[in-house]
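USER:
Working in pairs, take the chain set out below, taking as long as you need, and write a paragraph about the fold.
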Amino acid sequence: MLCSSRVVTPEGVRPAAVHISDGRIIAVTPPEAVRATPDVTDLGDLALMPGVVDTHVHVNEPGRTEWEGFATATRAAAAGGVTTIIDMPLNAIPPTTSLAALTEKRAAATGQSWVDVGFWGGIIGADTRNLADLAALHDAGVFGFKAFLAPSGVAEFPHVRMDVLAAATAHTARLGALTVVHAESSLVLEAAPLVVGRQYARWLAARPPAAETEAVAGLAALSAMTGARLHVLHLSAGAALDDVLTARDAGIALTAETCPHYLTFTAEEVPDGATVYKCAPPIRGEDNREALWQGLAEGLFAGVVTDHSPSTPQLKAVESGDFGQAWGGIASVQLGLAAVWTQARRRGHDLADVARWMCTGPADLVGLARKGRISPGADADLTVIDPEGSFVVDPARLAHRHPLTPYAGRTLDGVVRATYLRGRRADGDRPPHGRLLSR
């Protein structure tokens, strides 16, 4: 049993005792009657919130384990208060675009996951080459299917044209499956300036907001036409929220997410040559960041997830600082909760808001009804956090494989003191007891 003066429940933050049996929450009661009982851990004023559910993580194993792996990614997740991740289908070799590849992926994850792990399937190609695989992947329990409208960065996961995506989503709609999309228009990107050299402004010009707004508008129209559930991944352009709002008001099944780095950093503060900030879509200007925060306040996002996308220092081009050559991706699964809380509290939000964005919302998106909430019947996946505590990000203390982060040296609020997975501690040097999840 865990007791705290600040338990983040679906009804708000309040004093409570959380009763746990066989890995589940069986009751949430007032704390007074249980504080003196021998089986209670009294957290005092430390806050107890649901474990974070991160539905956008690139683990890259098998095939590119030198970039990241299940052991390092999930230990980093547990250290940052994350109790569930959903692994993206690309960057591993083979990509998760067939039942055989999913089987290989699950075998790689078995026995070395510190948190619970689920998997996305993939939609690939300039034709309908793997549509026949989607039903088998769906039956095997993937949480949905990912597609790129622009080049993914790896040859084995080619992007799709909008007409191919239309054929695929008609198929996923019949399955009742969620389709998640990297939403940047390849036509807009092809017309943008090429990226060469150390200037961040060139990378920003190469990925203009129009690439996102055009793609999101197209996805809204596609969802309206097919009835498919579509989800916009890592939205960075605040201007695209107009189409998200219009779709929501029209009853169209289109949702969107954003990421901690878009809510934290601004283009104005990115130094030239600092390729650790490179991601796609890019970190945009300060006004854009505030538009994303306004969208969060208005309920326009289904969740905030990290898009943890690590690579080796060589691929990140840290020595040359060339944005044209560097891999695009930010590794932050250990820091996402603190990064969002740091910015959220400055804007008057509380831990209940953060739990809705990073725990309940992502869990609901993928249908994990027992995750992301402190309520009877839910898994006892819990995070103990000191909301007033702060720390300076030391890359050497990060658990993911390569200590590369734009958060280095930054002071963040919200120190994770403990992470529980089904009622058992999951952080630190404890043996892994994460499970592989199916939809």
The mean pLDDT is 96. The two ends are 29 Å apart (CA to CA). Residues 54-368+388-412 form a domain with the TIM Barrel fold (CATH 3.20.20.140). Residues 209-226 form the longest helix (18 residues).
